[in-house]
């Protein structure tokens, strides 16, 4: 998968570096990512004063590839970031052929110039939301959210929210476990949805800094369909069962067993949503029978931890 960053003069470093760090971490995990940096001119000044150098030549793009436009300095759209017709056409054509385009902060203006915001939900930094709505009246600007996804057009609020956007794209492509691993490597909270409660159990209960609990969650995440005695989890963490139970509860609000059950129920619900029978989904998720799944769904789904 290629991730192409389109750089505009006065680009904000964190708008670029946050998502770039996410995707480079995924690449380091061996998942076959290529990162490219392109611009209309090779020398790209940044808002923070560090000069960057990009390529004027775009790599070939396929439907699995992503083009991401980081934001740039400007109190209103139109002061910077005006793209040439050929660049706008590249963005529009990539999306038309089935590819994904994304933006951070003011980068939404680039997508607007390419006609990709018309009729779609989108967002940008809170200081620029009114300007985005004024400049692209056919767009449906969603205010005060981290990011918005609409038909392979992904826009984020800006600055650090670009990390959340990138983690969402990783979770969509590779699953929440990989996204959680990347978030842990980057020492950031893992968020999956920009405008709704987090739906992934793996991500929802990873917003802590307990290394002991993360190690146990790694074990449970990878083997939640199997029987996992508390003693074995404590050995994996290098602590006593009592210490593990206390630390796990403080970090997640759950017991290790409850966390495993939530993962099983979530997996079963996903399979049912894909057309599997309740019985087949129950067995695939690690339950002995469908009755146990039904009981846990009634007890756990929608209930407080």
Shape: elongated
Enumerate the spans where pLDDT stays under 50 for 5 or more consecutive residues: none
Total beta strands: 10
CATH homology superfamily of the largest domain:
Class I glutamine amidotransferase (GATase) domain
For this structure, the CATH topology of the largest domain is Rossmann fold
State the gist of this model.
By secondary structure, the protein is an alpha/beta fold. It has helices at residues 13-28, 85-96, 108-113, 129-135, 161-174, 176-186, 201-204, 211-223, 230-237, 241-252, 256-273, 278-284, 290-300, and strands spanning 2-7, 34-39, 43-44, 52-53, 66-69, 100-104, 121-122, 140-141, 147-150, 153-156. It folds into 2 domains: 2-181, Rossmann fold (3-Layer(aba) Sandwich); 208-300, Homeodomain-like (Arc Repressor Mutant, subunit A), CATH 1.10.10.
State the main characteristics.
single chain; 305 residues; alpha/beta; Rossmann fold; Arc Repressor Mutant, subunit A; 2 domains; six-stranded mixed β-sheet; two-stranded antiparallel sheet; 13 helices; 10 strands
């Amino acid at each position: 998968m290629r991730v192409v960053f389109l750089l505009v003069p006065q680009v904000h470093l964190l708008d670029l570096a946050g998502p770039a760090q996410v995707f480079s971490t995924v690449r380091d995990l061996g998942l076959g990512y290529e990162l490219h940096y392109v611009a209309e001119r090779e020398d790209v000044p940044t808002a923070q004063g560090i000069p960057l150098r990009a390529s004027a030549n775009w790599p070939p793009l396929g439907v699995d590839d992503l083009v991401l436009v980081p934001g740039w300095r400007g109190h209103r759209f139109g002061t910077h970031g005006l793209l040439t017709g050929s660049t706008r056409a590249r963005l529009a054509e990539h999306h038309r052929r089935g590819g994904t385009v994304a933006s951070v902060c003011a980068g939404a203006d680039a997508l607007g110039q390419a006609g990709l915001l018309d009729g779609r939900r989108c967002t940008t930094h809170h200081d620029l939301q009114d300007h985005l709505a004024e400049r692209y009246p056919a767009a449906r600007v969603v205010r005060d959210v981290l990011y918005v996804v609409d038909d392979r057009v992904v826009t984020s609020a800006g600055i650090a929210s670009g990390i959340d956007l990138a983690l969402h794209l990783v979770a969509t492509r590779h699953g929440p476990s990989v996204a959680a691993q990347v978030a842990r490597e980057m020492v950031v909270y893992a968020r999956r949805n920009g405008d709704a409660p987090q739906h992934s159990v793996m991500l929802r209960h990873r917003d802590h800094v307990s290394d002991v609990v993360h190690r146990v969650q790694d074990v449970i995440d990878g083997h939640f369909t199997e029987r996992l005695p508390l003693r074995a989890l404590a050995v994996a963490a290098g602590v006593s069962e009592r210490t593990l139970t206390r630390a796990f509860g403080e970090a997640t609000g759950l017991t290790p067993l409850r966390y495993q059950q939530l993962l099983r129920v979530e997996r079963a619900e996903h399979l049912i949503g894909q057309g599997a029978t309740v019985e087949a989904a129950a067995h695939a998720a690690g339950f002995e029978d469908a009755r146990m799944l039904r009981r846990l769904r009634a007890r756990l789904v929608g209930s407080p931890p």
